[in-house]
Amino acid sequence: MGILLYNSTGIKLFNNRFLTIFVLIKLKPNPTSQTLHMKIAIGNDHAGTDYKNTITAYLESEGHKVTNYGTDSDESVDYPDFVHPVAAAVEAGNVDYGIIICGSGNGANMTANKHQKVRSALCWTKEITALAREHNDANVLSIPARFTSEPQALEMVKTFLNTDFEGGRHLRRVEKIACS
Ligand SMILES: O=C(CO)[C@H](O)[C@H](O)COP(=O)(O)O
């Protein structure tokens, strides 16, 4: 079966089955570009405000939807107030992933991991970040703003969002993490 193409004056241009195949391929939705647009919750204390802004600008430029639960100021705040909402959004399934930022990454990480369905990973290199996804199926990335550079933090975010869980033996272990 072929396809007829006409220009604006109605002159027949093509009647070609190869063109049909080409047009159908072009019209087929690209599943990769659809799944790449993720919903991400982000939260930070005063130590992470600049990093949050940089990371959010990057994520939005990539087409992701970012919900900001962090402070937007450098004035001293308490990180649990800004991390629990991120973890709750992940736990409720309202977002695909969470990103949390404080000075060392530890307080934010401890807070997020109080939520049953959250597996938050404190990461400081892209290799550890990749393992957090591949082996631990982490759904929250905790970034230590005072111990990583902004380029390193961005590299970790990219790695986190683009690395898949390997499953297999790691799934069995991840399923044993929950204690209730
Ligand atoms: O890393 C953090 C928690 O794990 C905090 O960002 C850090 O404790 C804040 O410290 P300060 O009040 O001295 O700015």
TrEMBL record:
Which InterPro entries does the record associate with it? RpiB, RpiB_LacA_LacB, RpiB_LacA_LacB_sf
Alphabetically sorted, this entry's keywords are: Isomerase
Q: Would you tell me the protein name for this molecule? A: Ribose 5-phosphate isomerase B
The UniProt entry's GO biological process terms, in alphabetical order, are: D-allose catabolic process; pentose-phosphate shunt, non-oxidative branch
PANTHER family for the chain: DNA DAMAGE-REPAIR_TOLERATION PROTEIN DRT102, RIBOSE-5-PHOSPHATE ISOMERASE B
Pfam families tied to this protein: LacAB_rpiB
Q: Which GO terms describe its molecular function?
A: ribose-5-phosphate isomerase activity
> Which protein family is named in the record?
Belongs to the LacAB/RpiB family.
